[in-house]
């Protein structure tokens, strides 16, 4: 993973974060967020994965069902946010739309993704802080703007 600060103004910073073959996207984003002490940020990315695991949240069961993607795919869209989790550590939340060689799209919550050959992320930090709070009725920690 390589990164470069590309904009710094009004308390917010924008970074280009470039992942290379073999990098795992969620590990890299979590590591970058911890290193920069991010508590409010959004990101978008394009590139490709050699394999990935997406997930679908089952509302009735209150858990995720994995969607395994065991082929080279284009990352047509990857978007997400970073907020302070209930424990105060940065929590990364991302969704992606992946395109197969046949043009089929696969979408969902990003659990993992192994980059090949690159993933180009533009990450923008906000000057305000966001925190997540666990919602028992949902079964997830969600951003709560009142915190």
Automatic annotation (TrEMBL):
For this protein, the record's InterPro entries field holds: DNA_bp_PD1 (IPR025707), PPC_dom (IPR005175)
Xref: PANTHER family = DNA-BINDING PROTEIN (PTHR34988:SF1), PROTEIN, PUTATIVE-RELATED (PTHR34988)
List, for all copies, the residue spans of the domain called PPC: 9-146
An example molecular function term from Gene Ontology annotations: DNA binding
Could you tell me the superkingdom of the organism this chain comes from?
Answer: Bacteria
Keyword rRNA-binding belongs to the record: no
Name the keywords, alphabetized. DNA-binding
| Regions annotated as coiled coil | none
List the protein's name: PPC domain-containing DNA-binding protein
SUPFAM superfamilies from the UniProt entry: AF0104/ALDC/Ptd012-like
């Amino acid at each position: 993973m390589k990164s470069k600060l590309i904009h710094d103004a009004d308390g917010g910073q924008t970074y280009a974060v470039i992942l290379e073959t073999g990098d795992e996207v969620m590990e890299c984003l979590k590591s970058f967020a911890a290193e920069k002490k991010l508590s409010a940020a959004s990101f978008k990315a394009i590139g490709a994965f050699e394999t990935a695991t997406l997930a679908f949240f089952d509302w009735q069961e209150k858990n995720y069902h994995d969607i395994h993607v065991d082929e080279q795919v284009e990352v047509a869209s990857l978007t997400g946010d970073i907020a302070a989790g209930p424990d105060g550590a940065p929590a990364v939340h991302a969704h992606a739309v992946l395109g197969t060689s046949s043009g089929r799209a696969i979408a969902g919550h990003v659990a993992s993704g192994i980059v090949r050959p690159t993933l180009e992320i533009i990450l923008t930090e906000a000057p305000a802080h966001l925190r997540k709070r666990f919602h028992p009725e949902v079964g997830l920690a969600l951003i709560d703007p009142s915190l």
